[in-house]
């Protein structure tokens, strides 16, 4: 019953659907309005064909084909490679530096700088090959440059005269001596003497060691204690070697002028290294004197003293000049070499005869020129040896004696050597040197002092 009812319903639905489709198909076949049909049939038109257009172009008169540059193909870029290997970047170095203090040794400073014992031993051997380490003294300095891990690279020892000895660590240890190239300056100054020449120079800021040179030059001519009343003016001209602001070595006197008791005493030292100085009184040559050691310090005078080695009081028969080992020693007057050899406590000695009664002795020498022979003539200023410490000596120095008829006399007061040197002096050349020195003093003082002195004569 139910099945018949369901089938009837399906049949009715199919009949209705078919009728609807038929009606829709019939309606779709009616023609569309003309406007709508025209709009629906529109399509875009294609582009017009290109047309050839002739345009006349007139080139400039200079633009001819044969003048056009031939550019040609561009070359390919070339990549250049360095033919040397890239240098390795040096690791940064740390620097340690300190001056040697009294009582300290080189090994102590190297240990403080962090060097191991084997490195310290190698450095000491390398430095000792170029410099006598026994000459180390306070004021010398040690500089150590090390890598980050503490390995030493350069050890430098700065000694006197601006000289450095450098030890460089590498595959092998190497050592080099670096000497400065100093500038030579000429300086001038004046000092008023109230108590002593030394004190006057020190107060005026002039090297006080010049007082030794003046005492040596004028000691046999002027009695400073009796003849100087105080208030005398001393004018000096000297030469210094400098590297930057540092003075290298000892300064050298070039000219000195001092008026005492109405007389003008002047001394001119030559710049030729001979050390042969000329003394003038009131513009006339008094005598020629050659210092045995130029620029040395007078460390002991003639007379009784306590012996520095034996400790008892003895007669000191000469004067001592303290100077560095190897400093040239010069004959103080013309003469003939009488003896070269060894004399007990004097050590290595050279003796020179000046006439029949006067002899000079130069002791404690470290060396004598190979071409110096007994009987040879020498002039004042000739090098006859080198400062040393042979014989009985506490350190490098020259012991200088003057003997008259075999008896020691004070070298700073005896005039016999001056007379011997004066006989060989050329007065014309000496007076020219004096005028030149006065002019140079005037120029460097920047005052009228030297000019007035010159006019006075």
Automatic annotation (TrEMBL):
Keywords: Hydrolase, Metal-binding, Metalloprotease, Plasmid, Protease, Signal, Zinc. It holds the Pfam family Peptidase_M23. Its cofactor is Zn(2+). Its EC number is 3.4.24.-. One of its GO terms (molecular function) is metalloendopeptidase activity. Residues 314-411 form the M23ase beta-sheet core domain. This is Murein DD-endopeptidase MepM. It comes from Sulfitobacter pontiacus. The gene is mepM_3.
């Amino acid at each position: 019953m139910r099945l018949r009812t369901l089938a009837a319903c399906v049949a009715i639905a199919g009949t209705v659907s078919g009728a609807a489709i038929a009606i829709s198909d019939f309606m779709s076949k009616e023609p569309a309005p003309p406007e709508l049909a025209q709009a629906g049939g529109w399509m875009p038109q294609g582009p017009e064909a290109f047309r050839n257009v002739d345009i006349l172009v007139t080139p400039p008169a200079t633009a001819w084909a044969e003048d056009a540059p031939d550019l040609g193909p561009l070359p390919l870029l070339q990549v250049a490679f360095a033919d040397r290997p890239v240098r390795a970047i040096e690791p940064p170095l740390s620097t340690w530096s300190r001056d040697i203090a009294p009582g300290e040794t080189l090994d102590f400073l190297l240990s403080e700088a962090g060097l191991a014992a084997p490195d310290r031993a190698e450095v000491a051997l390398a430095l000792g090959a170029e410099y006598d380490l026994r000459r180390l003294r306070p004021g010398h300095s040690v500089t150590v440059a090390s890598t980050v891990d503490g390995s030493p690279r350069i050890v430098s020892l700065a000694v006197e005269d601006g000289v450095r000895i450098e030890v460089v660590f590498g595959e092998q240890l190497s050592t080099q001596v670096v000497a400065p190239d100093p500038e030579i300056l000429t300086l001038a100054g004046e000092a008023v003497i109230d108590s002593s020449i030394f004190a006057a120079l020190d107060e005026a800021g002039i090297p006080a060691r010049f007082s030794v040179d003046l005492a040596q030059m004028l000691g046999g001519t002027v009695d400073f204690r009796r003849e100087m009343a105080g208030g005398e003016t001393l004018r000096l001209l000297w030469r210094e070697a400098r590297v930057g602001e540092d003075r290298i070595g000892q300064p050298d006197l070039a000219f000195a002028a001092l008026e005492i008791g109405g007389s003008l005493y002047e001394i001119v030292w030559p710049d030729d290294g001979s050390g042969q100085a000329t003394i003038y009184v009131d513009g006339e040559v008094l005598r020629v004197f050659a210092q045995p050691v130029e620029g040395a310090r007078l460390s002991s005078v003639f007379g009784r003293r306590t012996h520095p080695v034996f400790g008892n009081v003895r007669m000191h028969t000469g004067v001592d000049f303290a100077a560095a080992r190897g400093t040239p020693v010069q004959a103080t007057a013309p003469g003939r070499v009488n003896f070269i050899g060894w004399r007990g406590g004097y050590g290595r000695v050279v003796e020179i005869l000046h006439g029949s009664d006067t002899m000079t002795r130069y002791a404690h020498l470290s060396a004598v020129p190979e071409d110096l022979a007994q009987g040879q003539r020498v002039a004042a200023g000739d090098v006859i040896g080198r400062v040393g410490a042979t014989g009985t000596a506490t350190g490098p120095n020259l012991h200088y004696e003057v003997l008259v008829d075999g008896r020691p006399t004070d070298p700073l007061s005896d005039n016999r050597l001056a007379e011997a040197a004066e006989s060989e002096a050329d007065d014309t050349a000496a007076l020219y040197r004096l005028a030149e020195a006065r002019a140079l003093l005037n120029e460097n003082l920047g005052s009228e002092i030297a000019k007035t002195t010159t006019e006075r004569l």
